[in-house]
Task: inverse folding
């Protein structure tokens, strides 16, 4: 979805390095999410934000932090990368919904390899 | 907690075959249900959704019906094409204070000419 842009698309780095993955959106959505995809495990939620001042931990937040710099920007940081954080990372956005019936829109992902 | 279970793959079919990918869910309330598709090298795209019992979502020849009595949302297509080769994810959202998607583990479909 070109409306959700992730940078970089690929990154190889070493254990212990600090890494930032960035996400920007032009959909005007308030809600943004970071997921991690591992083979055979589906997608797991790392953090989510319902607006600039609202940040929440997801299922697997340990070892990660986030920053919501603006409505359109949501970045994910790995403070000290470790090899088991090697994965495909997705950013997603959605409109607000009390019933949860609004779909999420995904970026094309960042493939992160930690050596 | 809420969960989604979908049939494990990979699934390999010949072109024009009938497709079913099973999905069942566990939820405390009345979730919205989704099918997403992931083509190689791309992010997930919404394929279809249903927001209440007995609703049928449909798109690109795919269909799924929200069955509350069996807590299921099986994906079907009458005649698959090579271009349907992808990974398919079933997901639910309960809304409320979280509104997060809970995903199944995905089913890889390969369609052979």
Result:
């Amino acid at each position: 979805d070109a409306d959700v842009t992730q940078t970089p698309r690929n990154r190889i780095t070493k254990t212990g390095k600090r890494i930032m993955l960035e996400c920007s959106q032009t959909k005007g959505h308030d809600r943004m999410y970071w997921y991690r995809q591992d083979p055979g495990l589906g997608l797991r939620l790392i953090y989510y934000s319902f607006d600039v001042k609202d940040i929440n931990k997801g299922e697997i937040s340990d070892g990660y932090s986030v920053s919501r710099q603006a409505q359109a920007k949501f970045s994910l940081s790995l403070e000290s990368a470790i090899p088991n954080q090697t994965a495909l990372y997705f950013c997603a956005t959605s409109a607000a919904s009390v019933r949860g019936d609004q779909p999420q829109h995904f970026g094309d992902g960042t493939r992160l390899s930690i050596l | 907690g809420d969960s989604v279970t979908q049939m494990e793959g990979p699934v390999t079919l010949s072109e024009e075959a009938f497709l079913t990918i099973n999905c069942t869910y566990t939820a405390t309330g009345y979730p919205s249900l989704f099918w997403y598709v992931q083509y190689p090298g791309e992010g997930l795209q919404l394929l279809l959704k249903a927001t209440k019992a007995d609703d049928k979502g449909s798109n690109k020849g795919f269909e799924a019906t929200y069955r509350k009595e069996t807590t299921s949302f099986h994906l079907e297509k009458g005649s698959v094409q090579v271009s349907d080769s992808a990974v398919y994810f079933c997901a639910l959202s309960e809304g409320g204070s979280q509104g997060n998607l809970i995903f199944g583990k995905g089913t890889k479909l390969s369609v052979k000419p």
